[in-house]
Specification:
76% of the residues lie in helices and 0% in strands. The relative contact order is 0.05. It starts with 14 loop residues before the first helix and ends with a helix. The protein is mainly α and 433 residues long. Among the domains are: 78 residues, 434 Repressor (Amino-terminal Domain); 82 residues, no CATH class; 78 residues, Tetratricopeptide repeat domain (Serine Threonine Protein Phosphatase 5, Tetratricopeptide repeat, Alpha Horseshoe); 58 residues, no CATH class. It is globular. It is built from 22 helices and no strands.
């Protein structure tokens, strides 16, 4: 499922702190003789600044850093670190800012002493989102399931719906498309029957359903959901519209319409840049590089991957960098530069392991094995596929395991080991069942 972000709104327990932060923003703005529009600059709107100053909306760390810089103050000036609510708010802000692991660590610490069931439910839902963002499906399912139970006991239907969304996300990551689809469809019916959750929740559900159908190979149904969401997406802000377009681009690419994937992906990248979301823009550049590679435009793929790499390095995002390095390895392999491909794939594997990006680590192993196969070093490729299968078997994605086993089976057949190829194919067919 594509990433989405919404304006974080304070709950009852941290509303007072949000108001204090808003008051400090207003005081600093007036001292600087700035209007709300001037403080908003080109990144935000006057309405958003007004919502912050009145405590209606809660700033993310990204927004707070931006505003503090414009006001020539440290971000800590606006944060009452002595207030007991801050620890909870800090975890929420880290989540809103995309610091998934830091947010997860914060929620874990808070949950150890959380006695109030509704406060615990809020933290569990936050932890479920953080785990989902990190690709850790089973942990997302565990946290979201308990959050659903606690919110249901209090009859908080909107909160139940959000928790179930992250439960569906966790099921999707665990390759349980059937249950994820069932949950998402039920949520969509509730929203259309009048359940109010968040302004863009219906669009999020449609994009999520499109991702599930795409994973299941139902690309026509996936596009149908996305086309349905297109009519609702016009009212979204740049960041959310970009997220929607990302899902559309992925579906086009998986259906083989590379030209459409490139066109829509380029629109998403432009919107992310307009919203100041540079890391998201870098992620799209990396995806576009893969699309251009699939279209046979190696030169353009190389340029986009290099741009994405610069952004990842500047922002010290090792998880993203590990994925980009594997993209660059694939580009080098396509260009016949096998030594460079091996070196880049090795770096992708190592950085993926260090940063906890298991997908990039596995992708690096597969690119290494393909490069070794192309170099006729079949014994080395056999050993690399064995390592990739071991990593995939210990992970949470049967789909990735099936991909490894099928490629390994192809190599076994090439080596004349048809029995071994049959065993691997059989394991691939039964993976996840």
């Amino acid at each position: 499922m594509p990433r989405t972000k919404t304006i974080a709104r304070p709950t009852a327990e941290d509303a007072d702190l949000a108001k204090r932060i808003g008051t400090r923003i207003r005081e600093a703005r007036l001292r600087a003789s700035l209007t709300q529009q001037q403080l908003a600059g080109e990144r935000y709107t006057k309405a958003y600044i007004s919502a912050l100053e009145t405590g209606i909306a809660r700033p993310s760390m990204v927004a707070l850093n931006y505003l503090s810089e414009r006001l020539n103050l440290a971000p800590s000036h606006f944060l009452d670190v002595q207030a007991p609510e801050w620890t909870r708010l800090q975890a929420d802000l880290q989540l809103a800012a995309g610091e998934w692991q830091a947010a997860a660590d914060g929620y874990d610490a808070l949950l150890e002493g959380a006695a109030d069931s509704q406060a615990r439910a809020q933290m569990l839902r936050g932890r479920a989102e953080a785990m989902a963002r990190l690709g850790r499906g089973r942990e997302a399912v565990a946290a979201a399931s308990e959050a659903v139970r606690l919110f249901s006991e209090a009859a908080r239907d909107g909160d139940v719906a959000l928790a179930r969304y992250w439960l569906a996300y966790g099921l999707y990551l665990s390759d349980n498309e059937a249950d994820a689809r069932s949950l998402l469809r039920a949520l969509l019916e509730q929203v259309r029957a009048g359940l109010h959750v968040e302004p863009d929740f219906e669009v999020r559900l449609l994009v999520a359903l499109a991702s599930v159908e795409s994973r299941a190979g139902e690309h026509a149904q996936s596009l149908a959901y996305l086309e349905e969401a297109r009519g609702l997406a016009d009212d979204l802000d740049d960041r959310r519209r970009a997220t929607f377009l990302v899902g559309l681009a992925i579906s086009y690419r998986e259906m083989g319409d590379i030209e459409a994937a490139i066109r829509v992906g380029t629109q998403a990248m432009a919107l992310y840049r307009a919203a100041g979301a540079l890391l998201e823009s870098a992620t799209i550049e990396n995806d576009l590089a893969l699309a251009y590679l699939a279209s046979g435009n190696n030169e353009r793929a190389h340029t986009l991957a290099a741009a994405a790499e610069r952004q990842a390095v500047e922002n010290d995002d090792q998880r993203l960098l590990s994925a980009i390095l594997d993209t660059q390895a694939q580009i080098a392999l396509d260009a016949g530069e096998r030594d460079a491909a091996l070196a880049l794939a090795t770096r992708a594997r190592e950085l993926g392991r260090i940063s906890g990006n298991e997908l990039a680590e596995l992708a690096g192993l597969l690119t290494t094995a393909r490069t070794q196969t192309a170099s006729a070093d079949l014994a080395a490729a056999e050993a690399t596929y064995r390592d990739a299968a071991a990593l995939a078997r210990g992970g949470q994605s049967p789909a990735r395991l099936r991909q490894v086993l099928r490629e390994w089976a192809g190599l076994r057949a090439q080596l004349g080991d048809h029995r071994g190829a049959y065993e691997l194919t059989s394991e691939a067919l039964s993976a996840g069942n």
